[in-house]
Structures are given as C-alpha cells and as structure tokens.
Design brief:
Elements lengths: L3 H23 L7 E4 L2 E6 L9 E13 L2 E12 L9 E14 L10 E18 L6 E16 L2 E14 L8 E14 L3
C-alpha cells in the first residue's frame, strides 16, 4: 500500500505533465542552470514506535537543470535529534545524503510577475545515525524519498517550500532484522536566481 505523500506525488506528477505540455506549447521556457539553496526546517517520525523526537534540520541542495521541466537535485542534510529511552544526555546526529530528479513546471522567459511553480520529485540515498553520549553504534542505512512542493517567485527572488517523505531501512535496537521507518521532512529556503 502506497503512503499518502507518495500517492500525492504520483498524482501531482501526472497532473503537472499534462499542464506542463500545455504550458510549453504556449510559451518559450528557460532552462534552469546550476542552483544552490541552503534550506532549513524540521524532520519527524510518522510511525507509532519511533525512538526519536522531532528535530531541526539544516540542508544544502545543489540542482542542475537538464531541461526546463526536469532537474537533477542532490541534498545533504543534518538533523539534531533527541533519542528516546537512551538517557537524558543522549543526542543523535542524523545525516542525510541523497540524489534525485524533480519535475517542475517550466518558468517562462518573460515571466517576471509574482508566480508559483509546483514541483514533485523522487530520489534515493542513505542516512547515517550517529549517537552521542550513548552506547549505540553508528549505522548507515539506505533511504528513498518522494517530495512535493513549490516555489514562489518575484523576478529573481525565490522562496521554496518542500515536503519529503523518507523511507529508511533500519535495524531497531535489540533486533537483528531490518525494518522500514518513515520520516517527514519540511524544508523552506530563500534564494536569488541568476536569471
């Protein structure tokens, strides 16, 4: 069974493809170049038996446009979390590194008014759980994500909002089997476009 955000991402991709084709026929779109963004936000578990509280998240995103509507995106993130059940001094550094693709509605070459451009994406990567002040080994786990969001723009100023649903394969404390855990990350950032 698909998770709600994954289902929403797939539905939004289909809708954006239809709208994007109509949009491309009505105007000439500009291809995005290299983009750098340093968003921040929060990440929190969605499962009932998670061992981590909601945490602050800081990330660096580097994107490169292959076409006006298709962008490669690489993200490195760091969340500072408090694990539950490991003592009052225990801390968790959660590092995320992934790469993916985004489908965006193309920005038209003459588009200088306030506008909103939605996007959706998918990607794969890994997450590192590094515990401090706790007798727990550092782990490296495979992860994948689906994302939805949008960018509000006025001329060269862009405000980006993104919601990601991460699915990570982890080994819980005291067990030997791998299980899936889900986290939702909400990120926002401001950037100045070069064009």
């Amino acid at each position: 069974m698909l998770k709600p955000i994954t289902t929403a991402a797939l539905a939004l991709t289909s809708l954006m493809t239809i709208v994007g084709l109509a949009h491309a026929q009505s105007s000439v779109a500009t291809k995005p170049g290299l983009e750098l963004l340093v968003p921040s936000g929060t990440v929190g578990p969605t499962g009932k038996e998670d061992h981590v509280k909601r945490a602050k998240l800081t990330a660096v995103q580097l994107s490169y446009g292959l076409r006006p509507d298709l962008v490669l995106t690489s993200t490195v993130g760091w969340a500072r979390a408090t694990p539950l059940g490991l003592g009052p001094r225990a801390k968790l550094d959660l590092f995320t590194y992934d790469a993916g693709v985004e489908y965006r509605l193309p920005r038209r070459s003459g588009d200088r008014r306030i506008n909103f451009k939605p996007f959706t994406g998918v990607g794969i990567g890994a997450r590192t759980h590094n515990y401090r002040n706790a007798d727990v080994a550092t782990t490296h786990n495979t992860a994948m994500y689906a994302s939805v969001g949008g960018e509000l723009g006025l001329s060269r100023v862009r405000v980006r909002l993104e919601v990601r649903d991460y699915l990570t394969w982890v080994i819980p404390f005291g067990t030997s089997g791998t299980t899936r855990r889900s986290d939702v990350a909400v990120l926002a950032g401001l950037r100045l476009a070069l064009r």
